[in-house]
Amino acid sequence: MQISKTLTILGVTAGLAAIVPAAQSAHAKTMANPVPQALQGTWYGKYSDGTTGKSAVKYRLTKYTFKQGAAKATNQNYQAITFYDNVDKYANTKDSNYLFKVANKVNKHGYWKLTLINVNSPLYFKKVQHNGKTALKMYSYLSSNSKKAQINYYYQKSE
Question: In what order do the strands lie in the sheet with 133-140?
């Protein structure tokens, strides 16, 4: 009888040992990847979609947010939009249309992929040197069937 109790305890312990790491890895998969520190900050530049001309824009990237908006006040009713990286926290809120996810590593060309979930639109960011200044290079595609990338550079203001 003592042997069967020992075997039962060992079996339960082994089963729990197998279940707990699996539960932890499933939880880890739902955690948000933070925006890489190299990309964080406030970046200014001109954005053009190829049809409407260039507009002054500002991007602010923090550990778990991505805010885009006009760099200057204009007569257009242009509102800044904040996207959130924590999908679990914001999934069932009024901000659920403003979610993004960050890839867990750079792609083979050194770009970080940030995907705007609601429109399934990936944006690719990389910190580079451009015209002698540190810049945030962003490329994206205007449509899912477009083969030509839209490339823009954004700079931090000098103090």
Answer: 81-84, 65-70, 54-61, 41-48, 150-155, 133-140, 121-130, 112-116, 100-102
Q: Is residue 40 left, alpha or beta, with left meaning phi > 0 and alpha meaning psi from -120 to 50? A: beta
Name the amino acid, one letter, at 107. Answer: N
How far is CA 33 from each of CA 50, 53, 128, rounded to the nearest angstrom?
31, 34, 22
Pick the closest to residue 66 from 75, 76, 54, 57 (CA basis).
57
| Contact yes or no for 142/42 (Cβ under 8 A) | no
Cβ atoms of 136 and 38 closer than 8 Å: no
Alpha helices, DSSP H, located in the chain: 2-30, 87-90
User: Hey, what are 48's tokens?
Assistant: 């053009």
Q: Which amino acid is at 117?
A: I
The rounded distance, in Å, linking the Cα atoms of 98 and 54 is 24
The pTM assigned to this predicted structure is 0.69
- Residues 16-59 have pLDDT tens digits of 344 434 434 444 445 678 999 999 999 998 877 666 677 788 88
DSSP secondary structure letter of residue 81: E
- Token pair of 47, please? 């954005």
